[in-house]
């Protein structure tokens, strides 16, 4: 039997990898993938806690988070395409018109 | 059982009208090839929603939870619905009378439908009493806005603003969601009441619950746009189409403030020693830096963006003083401030919108040089809005808003905070008055002002100005009115 802490540590590690990725990567698509990674890391926590408490709330929550992630993908990729049409690039560093 | 469900559905009738109206709008838009008055149709949807809201407000027992405790139907949610519908209606009025095409918005059908859906999410976000519903409301509201920010599709600055909002917004919702997962782990439930009672039964909070509460607070604070989580706001506000900036500065802020009230006061009110210190820090940083950073802005839109951060700072000061009734001292102050702030913001962005044109992105303050000689009426309205934002006479609405909030915060002995806020409000006068100086005392460098204000735009702006002045003369109107809604 795998202890619950193992799942939580896995979830935390994945979440951190995602968060660090968002902060260091410059390509909008990679940043977006890192955000999806963070959401899915949270899903692992939800499922683990659901098992711990023996109720289904957490697993239901996972479905909603998956729907949100899918909607986010639809909106996000559309935004990245609009970006690319305007500037022929998806590097976030090439967008610096708006500052200070 | 069926009776029970029917009652719930009637309670969320304003939301159903918004959602179905948005779908209907898209559907009609698909089949009607030629342009049709979408703006007027959307205003009718908002009015219908408002009618069903008034029916609910007058004919129901309040203080009920609906849909098995996932949403509240109480005075708070009624006041929130009123403010959201008001803001949405004003933005629709603005964008249908000043043609949105000027800012490069091409697909108008989606434009109005997404705003309707965003308002739907805003009301859910502020009236949910269960974390998953809350999160879904937040995402419905934000996801529509991510797309709306990029609606000036051929402008690079618009897609930049959309990208920044999208990446940072979903980054912050991931943190929020992690906080929700941890709270679920600690308590075994996702309902607000269950979580707070689980956290209150233990004597000493574990580090994990501090982490979870911290993540939730950060998620809310990001949406309100308080320093140091404000970095997205000026960029997004500047790049987005002006009507969407107006929407974000009014409706989204209102909804996030109400979500904060519901989570911090009504749910974790007994843990106020945990979150109040963090909120105090955010509030003081926001009122100081929001105003200081606005000083150096050349772009009027960006300056108003910073000013809206500062105003959110004043409101969040009041969040430090919890109070459980809609018409308590602090909550009355917050509602008054949000109402007057909505009117001032719609007015000032509306005047900026009349000066925007398709060709250039120019929204600098120098654009208004000599505005008063060419457009005396619009200049006078702009002066009223600027004076009110600064809190100076004759538009006393802004002043009373600040006064109410500062007095209720003073009662709790946050003296340092109030002193900082008053001083930075004085500093703020400088950048608001700069606009008036440009309009009245500087010679115009270009002879032409593109006048894009038709009768309806002027009517809207005049109405906003009249209400800003009236609320300054009779501030008790708001509390009477709130009492009517929330009795």
Describe this structure in words.
The complex is a heterodimer of chains A (100) and B (487). In chain A, helix 1 (4-24) runs antiparallel to helix 2. With 100 residues, chain A is mainly α. Helices cover 78% and strands 0% of the residues of chain A. In chain B, helix 7 runs antiparallel to helix 9. The longest helix of chain B has 32 residues, at 156-187. In chain B, a hairpin with a 4-residue loop joins strand 1 (64-66) and strand 2 (71-73). Chain B has one domain. In chain B, strands 1-2 form a two-stranded antiparallel ribbon. The A-B interface holds A 8, 15, 18-19, 22, 28, 31-32, 35, 38-39, 41-42, 45-46, 48-49, 52-53, 55, 57-58, 60-61, 64-65, 68, 71-72, 75-76, 78-80, 82-83, 85-87, 92, 95, 97-100 and B 132, 135-136, 139, 143, 146-147, 150, 153-157, 159-164, 166-167, 170-171, 174, 177-178, 180-182, 184-185, 188-190, 234-235, 238-239, 296, 302.
Write a concise synopsis of the structure shown.
The complex is a heterodimer of chains A (100) and B (487). Chain A has 100 residues and is mostly helical. In chain A, 78% of the residues lie in helices and 0% in strands.
Topology:
The complex is a heterodimer of chains A (100) and B (487).
Chain A: H1 4-24, H2 28-53, H3 57-87
Helix pairs in contact in A: 1-2, 2-3
Chain B: H1 2-11, H2 13-31, H3 38-59, E1 64-66, E2 71-73, H4 75-97, H5 108-127, H6 131-149, H7 156-187, H8 192-201, H9 207-224, H10 232-239, H11 242-267, H12 272-295, H13 300-318, H14 329-354, H15 371-374, H16 376-390, H17 397-410, H18 415-441, H19 455-473, H20 476-486
Antiparallel strand pairs in B: 1-2
Helix pairs in contact in B: 2-3, 2-5, 3-4, 3-5, 4-5, 4-11, 4-14, 4-19, 5-6, 5-11, 6-7, 6-11, 7-8, 7-9, 7-10, 9-11, 10-11, 10-13, 11-13, 11-14, 12-13, 12-18, 13-14, 13-17, 13-18, 14-16, 14-17, 14-19, 16-18, 16-19, 17-19
């Amino acid at each position: 039997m795998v202890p619950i802490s193992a799942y939580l540590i896995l979830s935390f590690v994945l979440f951190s990898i995602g968060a660090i990725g968002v902060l260091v990567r410059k390509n909008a698509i990679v940043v977006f993938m890192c955000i999806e990674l963070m959401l899915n890391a949270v899903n692992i926590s939800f499922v683990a806690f659901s098992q711990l408490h023996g109720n289904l709330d957490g697993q239901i929550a996972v479905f909603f988070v998956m729907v949100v992630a899918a909607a986010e993908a639809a909106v996000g990729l559309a935004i990245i395409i609009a970006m690319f049409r305007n500037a022929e690039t998806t590097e976030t560093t090439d967008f610096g018109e708006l500052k200070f | 059982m069926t009776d029970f469900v029917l009652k719930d559905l009637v309670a969320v009738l304003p939301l159903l009208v918004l959602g179905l109206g948005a779908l209907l709008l898209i559907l009609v838009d698909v089949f009607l090839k030629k342009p049709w008055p979408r703006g007027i149709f959307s205003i009718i949807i908002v009015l219908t929603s408002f009618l069903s809201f008034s029916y609910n407000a007058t004919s129901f027992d309040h203080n009920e939870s609906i849909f098995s405790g996932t949403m509240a139907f109480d005075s708070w949610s009624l006041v929130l619905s009123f403010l959201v519908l008001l803001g949405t209606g004003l933005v629709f009025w603005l964008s249908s009378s000043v043609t949105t095409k000027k800012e490069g918005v091409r697909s108008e059908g989606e434009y109005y439908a997404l705003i309707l859906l965003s308002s739907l999410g805003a009301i859910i976000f502020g009236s949910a009493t269960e974390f998953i519903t809350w999160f879904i409301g937040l995402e419905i509201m934000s996801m529509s806005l991510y797309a709306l920010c990029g609606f000036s599709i051929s402008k690079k600055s618009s897609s930049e603003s959309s990208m920044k909002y999208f990446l940072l917004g979903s980054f912050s919702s991931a943190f929020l969601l992690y906080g929700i997962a941890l709270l679920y782990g600690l308590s075994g439930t996702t309902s607000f009441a269950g979580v707070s009672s689980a956290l209150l039964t233990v004597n000493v909070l574990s580090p994990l619950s501090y982490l979870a509460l911290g993540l939730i607070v950060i998620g809310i604070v990001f949406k309100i746009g308080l320093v140091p989580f404000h970095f997205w706001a000026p960029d997004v506000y500047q790049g987005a189409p002006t009507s969407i900036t107006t929407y974000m500065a009014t409706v989204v802020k209102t909804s996030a403030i109400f979500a904060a009230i519901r989570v911090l006061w009504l749910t974790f009110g007994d843990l106020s020693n945990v979150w109040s210190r963090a909120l105090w820090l955010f509030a003081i940083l926001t009122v100081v830096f929001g105003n200081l950073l606005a000083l150096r802005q050349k772009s009027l839109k960006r300056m108003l963006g910073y000013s809206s951060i500062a105003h959110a700072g004043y409101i969040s000061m009041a969040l430090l003083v919890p109070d459980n009734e809609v018409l308590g001292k602090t909550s009355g102050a917050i509602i008054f401030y949000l109402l007057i702030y909505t009117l001032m913001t719609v007015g000032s962005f509306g005047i900026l919108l009349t000066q925007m044109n398709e060709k250039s992105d120019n929204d600098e303050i120098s654009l208004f040089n000599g505005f008063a000689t060419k457009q005396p009426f619009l200049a006078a309205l702009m002066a009223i809005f600027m004076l009110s934002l600064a809190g100076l006479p004759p538009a006393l609405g802004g002043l009373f808003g600040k006064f109410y909030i500062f007095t209720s915060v003073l009662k709790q002995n946050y003296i340092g905070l109030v002193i900082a806020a008053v001083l930075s409000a004085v500093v703020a006068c400088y950048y608001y008055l700069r606009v008036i100086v440009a309009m009245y005392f500087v010679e115009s460098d270009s002879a032409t002002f593109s006048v894009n204000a038709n009768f309806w735009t002027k009517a809207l702006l005049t109405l906003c100005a009249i209400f800003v002045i009236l609320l300054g003369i009779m501030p008790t109107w708001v509390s009477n009115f709130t009492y009517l809604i929330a009795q």
